[in-house]
Specification:
Order of helices and strands: HEHEEE
Number of helices: 2
Shape: elongated
Structural class: alpha+beta
Strand content: 25-35%
Strand order of the largest sheet: 1-2-3-4
Distance between the termini: 79 Å
Radius of gyration: 29 Å
Largest sheet: 4 strands, antiparallel
C-alpha cells in the first residue's frame, strides 16, 4: 500500500513538473540586417562625393554631421551623408562616383 501511494505521489509530481515547463514565443520578430554600414569621418568620403556636395546649392553650405559607407547584400557601395540645416537633419545618399542616389 505504501509503495502504491509513493508511486502515485511521484507520478503526480512528475505531471506538475512537466506542466511548469511551458515555453513562450519571442515577443519581437528577429530581423536580419542586409547591409554593412560603417561610420566614417567626413574627410574620408571619396573626392567625387565631396566634389558633388560642394557643387550642389542645397547642401554646399551645410555642415556634415555624420557620414557612413554602406555596402548592401549585392555588394553595391554608397555613401550616406547627414547634414545640419539650421537644426534640421538632412540626409543624402551618393554612389562612389558622386552621383546622388534617390530612393523611389
Amino acid at each position: 500500500m505504501k509503495k502504491g501511494l509513493l508511486v502515485l505521489a511521484l507520478c503526480g509530481f512528475a505531471f506538475v513538473g512537466v506542466q511548469a515547463q511551458t515555453t513562450t514565443p519571442p515577443t519581437e520578430p528577429q530581423t536580419e540586417i542586409n547591409q554593412d554600414r560603417v561610420k566614417i569621418a567626413p574627410d574620408d568620403l571619396p573626392q567625387a562625393v565631396r566634389n558633388s556636395i560642394s557643387e550642389k546649392d542645397d547642401v554646399r553650405d551645410l555642415r556634415i554631421t555624420e557620414a557612413y559607407q554602406v555596402t548592401n547584400m549585392e555588394g553595391e557601395l554608397h555613401y550616406e551623408v547627414h547634414f545640419d540645416k539650421e537644426g534640421e537633419a538632412v540626409s543624402k545618399k551618393y554612389d562612389a562616383q558622386g552621383n546622388e542616389v534617390r530612393e523611389d
